[in-house]
Amino acid sequence: MGPMAEPLLEVRHLAVHYGGIEAVCDLSLQLEEGEKVALIGANGAGKSSTLKALAGVVPFAQGSLRFDGRDWTRRPAWQRARAGLILVPEGRGVFPRLSIVENLQMGQMGQMGHSDPAALEKVYARFPRLYERRTQAAGTLSGGEQQLLALGRALLARPRLLMLDEPSMGLAPQRVDEVFEVIAEMVQAGTTLLLVEQNARRALELCDRALILESGRVVFSDRAAVCLASPALRAAYLGE
Ligand code: ATP
C-alpha cells in the first residue's frame, strides 16, 4: 500500500485533560474520505472535547492527529481550519453584532482574503432567508436561522472534514428537519462528516459508522446499522 491508501483523518490515542479532569481517554479513530461518523454519548461523555481537540481549540494531552497525509498534532487551530478541518461549535459560534454577510465572509478568510463571490452566491441560493437579511446583525436571527448561517459559513470554508457539534440543539422540529436536510446535501456532495448530535437516531440514520463514548472512552465502534439493530444499544444510548 502506498501513501495514497492513508485515511483522510487518523487520530491515535487521543487524551484531553482539563486540569485533573480526564475528559477523553485513549480515543482512536480513522475516517476515510467521504465517510460519515456519528459520535454519541451522554452529557459529559467527551464528545465536544474530542471535536475541539481535532479542531485545535483544546490541546492533545496525549496522542496524535494526521490529516490529509500530514501531522497536525501541534499545529494551531487556524492552520487546521485553512487545511479544511472545520468545526461548527455547539452554540454555533455566530458573531451576533456582525452582519450576516460579514459572518459568511469569515468562512472565506482561510482562503487568504480571496473571497469567492460565486461561492457566496451559491450559499445565498441555498439559504434565501440569509440573502434577504444579509445586512442585518446576525444576533437578530432566530436560533434555527443562526444554525443555517453557521452551516453556510462552514460551506464557504470548503471543509474537507466537517465537524458539527449538536447542530439541532434547541431548535423546533421543523427547523431540525431543515438543518438535517442541509447536512444531508453536504455529505451527498462528498464532504466527510463527524457529527455530534443529541438526536442519536437521526445521527445514526445519516451516518455510516458510530462511535459511542462513555466517560471519555470509546465503548462501541461499528457500523451505524449495527447500533440501530441492537435493542440493548438502542435502549442504552437512544432512549428507545
Ligand atoms: P455534552 O453532551 O453535555 O455537551 P460532551 O460529551 O460534549 O457533553 P464534553 O463537553 O466534552 O462532553 O465534556 C467532557 C468532560 O470534560 C465533562 O466532565 C466536562 O465537565 C469536562 N469539561 C469540558 N470542558 C471543560 C472545561 N473547559 N474545563 C473543565 N472541565 C471541562
Our Rg estimate from Cα atoms comes to 18 Å
Structure class: alpha/beta
Q: Roughly what fraction of the amino acids lie in strands?
A: 25-35%
List the strand order in the largest sheet.
6-7-8-3-9-10
Shape: globular
List ligands, each type once: adenosine-5'-triphosphate
Distance between the termini: 43 Å
Give a count of the beta strands, DSSP E runs of length 2 or more.
10
The biggest sheet, with number of strands, parallel, antiparallel or mixed sense and barrel status, is: 6 strands, mixed
Tally of separate helices: 10
Averaged pLDDT, please? 91
Helical content (DSSP H or I, runs of 4+): 25-40%
Describe the 3D structure.
By secondary structure, the protein is an alpha/beta fold. Helices cover 37% and strands 26% of the residues. α3 (100-107) runs parallel beside α6, α4 packs antiparallel against α6 (143-156) and α6 packs parallel to α7 (173-188). The mean pLDDT is 91. The structure holds adenosine-5'-triphosphate (ATP). The site of adenosine-5'-triphosphate has 11 residues, from β2 and α1.
